[in-house]
Amino acid sequence: MAFERSAAQTWSVAALVRALADTLFARFGVVAVQGEISGFTRAASGHCYFALRDEAAQLRCVMFRQRAALVDFDPRDGQRVEIKAAVGLYEPRGELQLTVESMRPAGQGTLLEEFLRLKSRLQAEGLFDAARKRALPAHPRAVGIITSPQAAALHDVLVTLGRRSPQVRVVIYPASVQGVSAPADLLRALQAANSRREVDVLLLVRGGGAMEDLWAFNDEPLARALAASHLPVVCGVGHETDFTLADFAAAVRAATPTAAAELCAPALADLRMAAAQLRRALAQAAQGALAREQQRLDRLHLRLPSPERTLHAALRQWQDLRVRLQSHAQSALARSNQAQMQWASRLRMLPSRDRERRHVYLADLERRFRGRIAQCLRDQESGLDGLQRRLALLNPAATLQRGYCLAWGGDGRILEDAAAVHEGQALVLATANSAVSLDVGRTRPIDHPLAALMATKSRDSS
């Protein structure tokens, strides 16, 4: 009978939920509640969803776009706020829910207060000073990643490194990134990486989450180990607005795990571009140096006397000496004749005995004078013969008479090195009696005794 009476009062689920919601609103209406924000998210529609918690309980909250637009600060996890909200039920899931109408800060939450207290103390010790941070290597050969193997951040980092820097080897140091054991796991992974010394830089990464989800990265021993690490550490924990003690203690803070992967190693495309620029700069420098040396060689070549100019100068010197010698001989002969005529005139005026004595003296003087003139002529002729022999040695025609030939290129310059001859080149070959023009066909170097002899002479002369 009792079951029949209760069956007559059976509720549908939706009707019961609506009745409970009406009862709650009628009982409580709009209430003011203080608590700490946890898991705050802002949807694309502009609605905000979060939980309001304290040490013993939590309530789900929703704040619709029109009300959220009136909030004059940026709500964040761990922040203590005071809200005014209507108590009700979220009917699709039958969950208790507060529909927030207004929100204002009510002092910082417990986690945030502890974070700020730790940060201030460690900063006062100089643990976060820029002078203590290690510079990232410009071209790391291996990168270590400290994170959970199941974390989505690991996938993002591996994809980024594989796309941008495939030349870098990756070593993973697994560690839990959330929960009670996470700080000790992260510390062990960091110590293992420093002791093995198998990488050049470390990435400490994790995806975003609430402040309590990221609390392992606010561990004081972990922050001190990051500051003392021999390996530079790039910390990419959470999203761009998330900050942890690990961010301040690490060598570099990245906004996201993907940004950490981009900071730790240069992109292969950038390295190739830099190498191409260096290659072009090196080629330009080499061309400039070659041009300067060619100009220097041309200046030295102009300073060297050519055989033709040397030959002409020797010929002019020989002709000048011959003219001077002839003039000198003629002048000496004229002076001798004049002296002889003077002595003959004087002899005719002397007595016969003195005349004979003077005649003997004059004959002896003439003999000695003629001997001196003959010796002078022989010395001059000997010098003239030496100049003629030098002239003959410098005469290219004499060299050609011995079987040599001269080769001129198309630019009119004498070829001095067989290596300068190339296929298709027009040459002029001259011997002692003739000259011929020819075009060069196929060329190849050969071992010739004369070439070896000339190389030996070149070394001896140097």
Features:
462 residues, alpha/beta, OB fold (Dihydrolipoamide Acetyltransferase, E2P), Rossmann fold, five-stranded parallel sheet, 13 strands, rod-shaped
CATH topology of the largest domain: Rossmann fold
End-to-end Cα distance, whole Å, is 133 Å
Proportion of residues in β-strands: 15-25%
* Alpha-carbon Rg, integer: 55 Å
Q: Kindly report the average pLDDT value.
A: 83
The CATH class of the largest domain, by name, is Alpha Beta
Classification by helices and strands: alpha/beta
Shape designation: rod-shaped
By CATH's scheme, which homologous superfamily of the largest domain applies? Response regulator
Counted beta strands: 13
Task: Report the CATH architecture of the largest domain.
Answer: 3-Layer(aba) Sandwich
Query: Numbering strands along the chain, what is their spatial order in the largest sheet?
Result: 1-2-3-5-4
Low-confidence stretches: none
Helix fraction by DSSP (H/I, runs of at least 4): 40-55%
Indicate how many domains the architecture comprises: 4
- Major sheet characteristics: 5 strands, mixed, barrel
Secondary-structure element string = HHEEEHEEHEHEHEHEHEHHHHHEEEH
> In DSSP terms, counting alpha (H) and pi (I) runs of 4 or more, how many helices?
14
InterPro entries: Exonuc_VII_L (IPR003753), Exonuc_VII_lsu_C (IPR020579), OB-fold_nuc-bd_dom (IPR025824)
Domain OB-fold nucleic acid binding: 11-104
Subunit structure: Heterooligomer composed of large and small subunits.
Function: Bidirectionally degrades single-stranded DNA into large acid-insoluble oligonucleotides, which are then degraded further into small acid-soluble oligonucleotides.
